[in-house]
Amino acid sequence: MRFSEFLDAEWKPALGCTEPAAVAHAASLAAARASGSIRQVRLVLDVRTYKNCHAVGIPNSGGRTGVLWALALGACLPDSSHGLACFGHVTPAVLAAAEDLVARKLLRVEVDATRPDLYIDCAVEGESGTGRAVLEVEHTHVARLEADGVQVGGTPAPRGDERPSVRAAVGALGLAEMRDLALSLTAEDRGRLREGAAANLAMAEHGVGLLPPGFVPSPGTDRLGRMSRLVSAGVLARMSGEPLMVVSLAGSGNKGITVSVPVALWGREGGHDPARIDEALAFACLATSATTHRLGTLSAMCGAANAAGIGVALGILLLEGATPAQMDLAVNTMVGNLAGMICDGAKIGCAMKAMTGVEAAFRAASLALADFGIPATDGIVGVDGDASLLHLGRLARNGMTGVDAEVLEIMQAKL
Question: Where are the alpha helices (H) located in 183-252, listed in sequence order?
């Protein structure tokens, strides 16, 4: 694999939380194939996509939150070509049309608990025709497009052993192979990584204004405290619906922020060579995507803390010249420390979980550099980092299967 292939698949611009953006994207695709004024919009989601749309802010919506607004705005967009950046094209006219749909109760949302992977099925009924769009497995994979019940586009999402995705291919690599791939960057790869890190840092700096005064990172704040608070600010801003573009990682803008901000700043403030910083960020991104593959695209376990946190620890260790054994120790410590932190949907509280992941990553890296970490005799920790990641994925995919159902019931009761 070339690293540029990885960037094409996993390092993507996004505006707003990824799941509501995917819902809006599907709605816009369906609406583009309907005709006449909208009579009804019907949406079917898997549990985890619903969970991540439940309470999160929508950019350019005047402070609206949740899945109904994502659905309504998407159905009213005049152009369906903007993908996960679609909220950047919400105008006052689009917002007014969406308000009308919500007010007239023309939106219906259902949850299909039998879907194990990402599933977004949107049908728009117009006065003169209907359109339907289905996204599966990945946020931008169009599995089916229909106009008046006839398929007009889309390709089935690959499953199981069928032509594995880039993320699956990365997930099959060991830490040593990922490290080697991270050292193979082209000049173009480096430019794309730097641009993404700059966009994510801009969101973090913007989000500082949302923090309470006593929590704002000042020049006197220690490096760990300042960087972890910046990550928290970036995630808070994104979950609040602030209309700045970020670059997502492994389908998550929060992972993109959580990984790129501390790794880039640690390298810059530590006086490391810019080329080495690029390689550290590349390694961190690969490790995050590999862990995400093991956990699942949408997981019962918090990806910002577990997947991105592991990426941060490994990126820092690459900068500091750690040995492979020290990298194994850091992964073991992260798995032994944070495994089990649940995902209860996308919302402003994700800012605290991302901050926890970054703080844990700094501790794990520091301990590993002193040749100390949680030993393989402890709990689910493996004999090395690769084994620990396998155990983490097993826990997330098999051991936590009941978590999402309980989270969904709690969320629906709150409505």
Answer: 187-207, 223-239
Query: Which alpha helices (H) appear in 18-133, and where do they start and end?
Result: 18-32, 47-53, 67-76, 92-103
Predicted TM-score of the model (pTM)? 0.90
- What residue ranges do the domains of the chain occupy? 16-153, 166-414
Q: For 343, which DSSP code?
A: P
Range 16-21 average pLDDT: 90
| Residue pLDDT, tens place only, 103-129 | 999 999 999 989 988 999 999 999 999
Predicted local distance difference test score (pLDDT) of residue 160: 56
Q: 16-153, what's its fold?
A: 60s Ribosomal Protein L30; Chain: A; (3.30.1330)
Residue 173's contacts (CB-CB under 8 Å, 6 or more residues apart) are: 181, 286, 290
What is the β-pairing status of strands 245-249 and 130-136?
unpaired
Q: In sequence order, which residues have a C-beta less than 8 Å from that of residue 247 and are 6 or more positions away?
A: 11, 12, 13, 14, 195, 196, 197, 199, 200, 253, 256, 260
- Interior CA angle at 393 toward 387 and 398, to 5°? 125
Query: Tens of pLDDT along 64-110?
Result: 999 999 999 999 999 999 998 899 999 999 999 999 999 999 999 99
Q: CATH fold of 166-414, please?
A: 2-methylcitrate dehydratase PrpD (1.10.4100)
